[in-house]
Amino acid sequence: MAFDSVWLAVAVVPIGFLLFHWASAGYPRLPSYIPGPPSRSWIAGHAVDLWNKQEQAGDLEFAWFKQYGATIKTKGTFGTEILLTSDAKAIHYVLHTSAYRFEKAPEAVISITAVNGKGVIAVNGKTHQRHRKVLSPAFSEIQLRTFMPVFQSVANTLTKTIRAAIERDGGIVDVHHWLGRASLDIIGESSAFNYKFNSLEDENCEMANIMSHLMDGASAMTEPLRVGLWLMEKFPLLQGLVDYSPADLHRHMVKFKKLARELGKIIVDKAKQSSTDTSAKDILSILVRANESEDSSKKLSEDEVLNQTATLLSAGQETTSSTLTWVLYELSKCPDAQHALRKEIREVRSRVGDGPLTQQDYDSMEMLNAVIKETLRFHPILGTMLRVASFDDIIPLAEPIITPDGQTISQIPVQKGQLVECAAHGYNRNPAVWGSDAHIWRPERWLTKQEAQVTVGMHANVLSFSGGVRGCSGWRFAMMSMQSITFELIENFYFEPSEAICRRPGLLITPHLAARVEEGVKLPLRVTEV
Ligand code: HEM
Questions:
Q1: CATH class for the region spanning 2-529
Q2: Distance 150 CA to ligand 1 centre (A)
Q3: CA pair distance 123, 137, nearest whole angstrom
Q4: What is the C-alpha radius of gyration for the chain, rounded to an integer number of angstroms?
Q5: Tens-of-pLDDT digits for all 530 residues of the chain?
Q6: CA 35 – CA 15 distance, rounded (Å)
Q7: Which of 88, 215, 405, 414 could potentially form a cystine with 418 if both were Cys, beta carbons 3.0 to 4.6 Å apart?
Q8: d(Cα 328, Cα 322) in Å, to the nearest integer?
Q9: What's the whole-model pTM score?
Q10: Which atom of ligand 1 is least distant from the CA of 192?
Q11: How distant is the alpha carbon of residue 110 from its chain centre?
């Protein structure tokens, strides 16, 4: 046995060493004057610390930005260097000005593909342009307004469901559970599928049950996992192995992808047989037409169509439900804001009566929109956007780096292949952008006009919907559904905290019980009728 181990070491160690040197030979290096925290692991860099060693997602980055400045150097796998920035000008340059010159990094693409296959969110360059061009009409304001009755009817069903849950569960309600189902029903019925999941009423809805566990285990980062991801980047053929991984996270992802594609196939085939309206701009009609198109710039293969259905479900469901969950959480901790919002809701009700509100009614509500924007700022669901430079480039800075010998550095040269990470948390709480109270959830800040010097995000200039050509296509959709659900819930219920909650880092940043994170994503609140 010992003899075998020696031979194994003799064979594997040098091969591994050669392999590593071959693969890492072209790693670009950042200028040495860029400051950054030391890393405890050469193998995994800062990844394990960022995922596993913070109680609240973002805390470690906030401390680094405070100590070293808005743009810093962190470590990736096997000593790679990452430019991590919360600087408005740098983020604007990477996401907006340079756009396709900074592609989505392979590591991000691998994780996204594992959940959705290669839909719009997982592809780069010209393929991304084609996918985005096909889908864009479905997200126009005019098109989305036609879904308002769906948002309102789901919000109504949610109210009934929560009323029943209060009775059943003695007033403590896991609001994330129900908001997850409401978000799924909204996406299914309005945009992606023209399909009724009815998950608020059907406890056994298979898709809702799979999606409620999709992010379980998405917070675990280990050195072997980092090395696995690194190997998949270098040897793309290995990426198929994710589908056979025994890890809980991957099993949930594979199950979700399979179900979303099966469902996609059924409804797309049905739509193909019945569709006659060639100008319809709902997503399903758009996908069917793209599949049948003869024009290669507008064509999506059948595989691409099915990947979009999985993409839209996963991109829209947990993001919306977790953001809404944080809205209720923050309001539960801040009774004054909750009262102010309810007062505004009552004023609107007395003006418009019992009938449905229009989009203008929602848009005119200062406190409602302030609460949602402030929650988006405070709780981005995706903590960072990882990009890789396709060319040598120069990134400008709003907050210069001062070197130890006193030089002021206002732009950073980067080489082709350089990893650049735009920090949503960091930017959304950057005191240079938001003021000295950036770390306080204070919706009133939105009641006075926010003067952004540099445009960064898709909406309200926060980075939570990302920005530029890869920014969230569904931001308007998300805003409209969050407006109608928040309105309905605050009109009917009073929310108070019930247990300590933490913002768990991971693939997505989601609420967990501070004392029992192993129970997965959840947020129990004490809920009473008003
Ligand atoms: C509060 C809710 C939401 C948040 C916080 C959010 C956030 C984001 C972020 C950060 C990205 C960029 C991801 C990246 O760079 O890897 C993104 C992309 C995307 N989102 Fe959203 N999203 C939300 C809701 C939605 C909804 C409801 C839909 C559709 C129904 C949607 C569809 C998309 C799509 C298609 C992309 C890919 C865009 C592209 O790569 O061109 N999102 N979202």
A1: mainly alpha
A2: 20
A3: 19
A4: 24
A5: 444 444 445 455 555 555 555 555 568 999 999 999 999 899 989 988 888 778 899 999 999 999 999 999 999 999 999 999 999 999 999 999 998 999 999 988 988 888 888 999 999 999 999 999 999 998 999 889 889 999 999 999 999 999 999 999 899 999 999 999 999 999 998 866 778 899 999 999 999 988 887 777 666 777 887 888 888 888 888 888 777 777 776 777 888 888 888 888 888 887 777 766 677 777 888 888 888 888 888 899 988 988 998 899 989 999 999 999 999 999 999 999 999 999 999 999 999 998 899 999 999 999 999 999 999 999 999 999 999 999 999 999 999 999 999 999 999 999 999 999 999 999 999 999 999 999 999 999 999 877 767 889 999 999 999 999 999 999 999 999 999 999 999 999 999 999 999 998 888 888 999 999 888 889 999 999 99
A6: 34
A7: 414
A8: 10
A9: 0.93
A10: 30
A11: 15
422 is in an annotated binding site: no
Instruction: Tell me the two tokens of residue 447.
Output: 């009641």
Nearest residue (CA) to ligand 1, atom 21: 472
446 CA to centre of ligand 1 in angstroms: 23
Structure token pair of residue 399: 């907050």
Q: Whose CA is nearest to atom 25 of ligand 1?
A: 316
Helical spans, DSSP H, in 334-379: 335-352, 359-363, 366-378
Mutate to test the pocket of ligand 1, among 91, 102, 472, 485 (most ligand atoms within 8 A of CB): 472
Eight-state DSSP code of residue 97: I
Which among 334, 381, 326 has a CA at the least distance from the CA of 175? 326
Displacement of CA 464 from its chain's centroid (Å)? 7
Q: Find residue 502's DSSP bridge partners.
A: 512
Q: Of 81, 19, 22, nearest to 46 (Cα)?
A: 81
| CA quadruple 260, 282, 315, 417: dihedral, nearest 10 | 110
Query: Which residues share a beta bridge with 524?
Result: 174
